[in-house]
Design goal:
137 residues; alpha+beta; five-stranded antiparallel beta sheet; four-stranded antiparallel beta sheet; globular
Length: 137
């Protein structure tokens, strides 16, 4: 279906996509797995299911399954900002956010990574990072 800097997306069936992610945005695979857990916690309606790992051209990819979201409208990034602000996140630049209380950074929330279906936002491609305050709590 598509390909971004960090992953390749394939339509599995009418209800699911498969994503191959090489964890390029993360220092370690552990950080990528934390990202999956945080995404699933905050956005359970588009939760990732880790299927396993594969290797292609000497590159290791995580294989995850996610629900397919059919859009009904273009995403208004002001609505994304409002939603995240109401949930304790602050917009720190462009489409990136931070929750200083939780110690969580949430990035890459442009209109291709947050979709709108029936006036509901669906976060399908998030990039979470943990900061020092997260580990102190």
């Amino acid at each position: 279906m598509s390909e971004g800097a960090e992953q390749k997306v394939y339509l599995k069936d009418t209800e699911n996509v498969l994503k191959l992610n090489d964890s390029i945005y993360y220092n370690t695979w552990k950080d990528y797995l934390y990202n999956l857990l945080l995404h699933n916690y905050f956005f359970p309606d588009t939760a990732y299911k880790l299927i396993g790992f594969t290797k292609d051209n000497h590159i290791v990819y995580a294989v995850v399954q996610q629900s397919y979201v059919a859009i009904t409208a273009n995403t208004d990034l002001n609505q994304v900002k409002e939603f995240l602000t109401l949930n304790g996140f602050e917009n720190n630049r462009n489409n990136d956010y931070i929750n200083p209380e939780l110690g969580i950074i949430l990035e890459d929330l442009h209109d291709e990574n947050v979709l709108t279906r029936n006036e509901v936002l669906y976060f399908i491609d998030t990039v979470f990072y943990l900061t020092e305050p997260f580990w102190i709590r």
